[in-house]
Amino acid sequence: MKEETQQVDLTTINLDSLAILKKNDYLKLLKKPSSLKKKEAFIFICKYECVNGKLPIVAVPYKKMSEAKKDFKDRVKKDKKAFGGSKFILLAETNIVKEEDGNLIFEARPLAGGADIEVAAAKLFSKMKMGFRLIGEATPEQLEAQKELEKDLSPQELEQLAKKKAKRLARYAKISENLSKLELALSKFQEETKKESLAANIQKMEEALGVMVDEALSDGVIDAEEQQQIDALEAQLLKLNTSSAPTTLSKEEINLRMAKVDENIARLKAALKIS
After folding, report:
1. pTM (2 decimals)?
2. Where are the domains of the chain?
3. Between these two residues, 264 and 153, which has the higher pLDDT value?
């Protein structure tokens, strides 16, 4: 076994090195430009068990789509013990795009597998100061997983979900009210110290919304009414995050803020796709 380990290249991410790499070593490798640029495809694996603990998601890069498809079919799909089966894996065509505002977005088009990766992947790619966006249609496996979730709900569970949704709607309204007050306060203050104080309060509202989105995601069902509320709050937060940024921030600090915004938007978009 020791001899086999020595033959694995631990300077790149692939299925072989993934089985040996520690969590921090994996994340360090993923941050290298060579791990992200000029890659036709990625294989995503949710709740992956590294040698020293679990990561919410790992992304394995491939220069060629043909190689990714072969590994996905011959290794990832077949080895359920290591990779968890269809609901934990996803093969995607990938690309990095630069938006008009200069932000980098990692785009992934699902091709096979049933994993819902958007929230976890957004958090992962925010570490590389990138936004994350799913494009295209859901795979048949993803659609089937959603149908199974809805089919398994009893009338009592549906009633409980409705009560939780009603509470969330009330909290959405309260957050919107608070954000409107913060927006008014920002228009009155020009001092950077006061702006920073207000920005801290905006962050609290953002975190509160994040908690509710996580709850909605765990429930697995979001209807049009709740979607509309989340969409409106997303727009408010985007506006406030931009106007509350102190002008004295360094480029690195601004990038970190924008990465946080991108992460939260991706989490919200994940919620909006569940209907």
Report:
1. 0.57
2. 2-141, 151-272
3. 153
